[in-house]
Write a structure and sequence with these properties.
Helix content is 56%, strand content 0%. With 343 residues, it is mainly alpha-helical.
Length: 343
C-alpha cells in the first residue's frame, strides 16, 4: 500500500461522513497518474503554492493601495489568514483540511491590482460579468504553466469559483472557505484601518463589540467558535444567528467607514484611471504585451480577453511600472517592442 493510499484510508476512518474524501474526488479534467505520497488535494495545494500567480499576491493590494509600511495586509497575507481560519474550522469539524487549504490558497489568484478598484475597471472595460472568482478559476485552468493550467481536482476548482457572492460550493470545505474569507477580511481590515488612523477600535458600535468582542483576537475567536458550534455534525456550514448577524453588521460598518472612506481611498481614482488607460493602450497595441499574453492566431481567444488576463495578472507596482514605461519619457535605453515581463 502506498503512502497516498494510507492517507486516503486514514481520511475514511477519521473524517466526518460529510467530509469530501480525496479518494472520492470527481477527479481532474485531464486524467493523471496519482502521486505515490500525496492525496489529490495535497497535490493541488502544492501546485497552487508553486504557481506564479500565487507569488504575485504579495504585491497586490488588500485594502490600502501600495502601502509603504511593512505591516499592512497584502493579498498574500490575506490568503494565508483565510487558510489558517479554514483549517482551524475544518479540523474541529473533522472535515478535510487539505481541501480547505487548497481552496483557500487559490481563491484570490485572479484578483486584480489595486484590489476591488481593479475589478471594477475590468467590469467596465472588458465585461460586466468579470469577477475575481471566475478569473481565479481561469488562472488555474488556463493561464498557469504557459497555458496548460494546473489541472486541479473538481472540488478545488468548485471551491475557488464559489468562494464569494450568492453561490455555494458543493463541498462543506468550500463553504468553510467562504466563511473564512469573510472572517479574515472583516477583522484584518479593521486592524489595518486602525493602524492607518482611519478608524479606532472604540468607534466600532458598542452593540457589535458586546457581541463579537472588544479586540481583534476576541472577534476572530468569537466568529470561528460560532461557525464550529453551529456546523458541528451537520453538512450545513453556518454561524449562530446572533453572531452571523453581528458579523454582517460589522461588515456594513466597514463599508461605511473604511471601504468607501475617501481618506482610505484617496488614490483609488488615479489607480482606476491608470488601469483604464492601460486597457485601452493594449487593445490598440496587443503585440506589445509579453509573449504569454500576446494574441496568437490559433489560440481561439479574442484580443480583449488577452488584455483582460494581462491587466488582471498585474501587481500594483508592475501596473505602475508599465504605465510609466508607456507614458513617462526616459533616457534612451535601446529599443523594445513589448512591455516588461510580468513580475
Amino acid at each position: 500500500m502506498t503512502v497516498r493510499e494510507q492517507l486516503e484510508a486514514r481520511e475514511t476512518a477519521t473524517l466526518s461522513p460529510h467530509a469530501a474524501k480525496a479518494a472520492d474526488s470527481r477527479g481532474r479534467e485531464r486524467p493523471e497518474e496519482p502521486c505515490e505520497y500525496r492525496t489529490a488535494y495535497q497535490r493541488d495545494r502544492d501546485r497552487i503554492v508553486h504557481a506564479k500567480a500565487f507569488r504575485r499576491l504579495m504585491h497586490k493590494t488588500q485594502v490600502f493601495l501600495s502601502p509603504e509600511a511593512d505591516h499592512y495586509r497584502t493579498r498574500l497575507t490575506h490568503t494565508l489568514e483565510v487558510m489558517q481560519i479554514a483549517r482551524t474550522a475544518a479540523r474541529a469539524l473533522f472535515l478535510n483540511e487539505d481541501l480547505c487549504e487548497a481552496i483557500a490558497l487559490g481563491h484570490d489568484l485572479g484578483h486584480t491590482p489595486f484590489g476591488h478598484a481593479g475589478e471594477a475597471v475590468l467590469q467596465a472595460c472588458y465585461s460586466r460579468d468579470f469577477t475575481h472568482a471566475a478569473q481565479s478559476l481561469r488562472v488555474v485552468d488556463v493561464l498557469e504553466r504557459d497555458g496548460a493550467g494546473l489541472n486541479l481536482t473538481w472540488e478545488v476548482r468548485d471551491g475557488i469559483l464559489n468562494h464569494t457572492g450568492s453561490n455555494l460550493a458543493a463541498t462543506p470545505e468550500g463553504r468553510i472557505v467562504k466563511f473564512a474569507d469573510r472572517i479574515a477580511y472583516i477583522n484584518h481590515d479593521i486592524d489595518d484601518a486602525v493602524r492607518a488612523g482611519v478608524l479606532s477600535d472604540g468607534e466600532i458600535p458598542p452593540s457589535l463589540r458586546h457581541v463579537l468582542g472588544e479586540t481583534h483576537k476576541l472577534r476572530i475567536d468569537t466568529m470561528v467558535s460560532s461557525l464550529i458550534r453551529a456546523s458541528a455534525g451537520s453538512p450545513d456550514i453556518r454561524m449562530e444567528d446572533d453572531i452571523g448577524e453581528a458579523m454582517l453588521a460589522l461588515r456594513s460598518f466597514l463599508f461605511e467607514r473604511v471601504y468607501l472612506n475617501p481618506d482610505a481611498k484617496q488614490d483609488e481614482d488615479k489607480a482606476m484611471a491608470m488601469l483604464e488607460e492601460l486597457y485601452r493602450y493594449f487593445i490598440r497595441h496587443p503585440k506589445r504585451m509579453p509573449g504569454e499574453f500576446s494574441p496568437c492566431a490559433d489560440d481561439g481567444e479574442t484580443v480583449d480577453r488577452h488584455v483582460c488576463d494581462y491587466i488582471a495578472g498585474m501587481t500594483d507596482r508592475y501596473a505602475i511600472r508599465v504605465y510609466s514605461d508607456i507614458h513617462i519619457p526616459k533616457k534612451f535605453r535601446g529599443f523594445t517592442t513589448t512591455a516588461p515581463e510580468i513580475d
